[in-house]
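Good morning C.,

I know you're traveling, so I'll keep this short. The sequence:
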Amino acid sequence: MFGIKKQPPIHTLVGEGTVIKGELLFSAGLRIDGEVVGDVTASGERSILVISEKARVCGKVKAGHVIINGTVQGPVEATELLELQPKARIQGDVRYEALEMHQGATIEGGLHPLHPLKAEEQPAVIKLASNNA
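The tokens, ready to paste straight into the viewer:
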């Protein structure tokens, strides 16, 4: 209703104090409160990944809707929405469809939209004339 998409449910939790080494593949929803050393990838079309304030991921992150408030060392790709909360720390390039970044979040890497604006969609460039004769 009113264009708001319902988020998939979060059925999986990596609890605080837990360390997972290796690739983590999930569907629907995942919340990480612990540490993952390896890639975290969503399968399927709709997915949500929450990386909490105490969480740490060392590897590639890819999901539909990604919410980060912890640390990620590696590239991040959000095919729908990337939300960077105030304590988010990313070391790696970021690719996103839409981006919401709160004050305090940091990125050490490049920001790349998944679908860059075409030339005709670019904002007009205004050139100012100089009065220096």
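Safe travels,
E.
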